[in-house]
Amino acid sequence: MSTHEQQPTSHSFVQRTARAVVPFVTAFFIALLAAKVVGLVTDNPWTRLATAVGVAVISLLFHPYEEAEEQAAGS
Question: What residue ranges are annotated as transmembrane (predicted)?
Fold first, then answer.
């Protein structure tokens, strides 16, 4: 067993920040894509906004949060 396996996993600041930011950036880009697709169908800006917000919320709800799973497994 190597010394790396014996020590608890410690992540750098950049890794923790990336793991915290990536779900929101991904949700933002998915929402932009959904708004663009809805914009091809209709010219109503409220419909595009509602679609973008809804898709962003759903995207964040379905994102797997690994830290919560790791903490639950460690307990």
Answer: 20-40
pTM exceeds 0.85? no
CA distance 34 to 67: 28
Reported as a single tens digit per residue, the pLDDT across 18-31 is 888 999 999 999 99
- Joined together, the tokens standing for residue 46 give 């409220």
Element (H, E) at 14: helix 13-41
State the Cα angle at 33 between 62 and 20, rounded to 5°.
Answer: 45
Cα separation, 47 vs 31, in Å, equals 12
* Residue 9 structure tokens: 């996993």
Torsion sign across C-alpha atoms 50, 43, 27, 24: negative
69/46 Cα distance (integer angstroms): 37
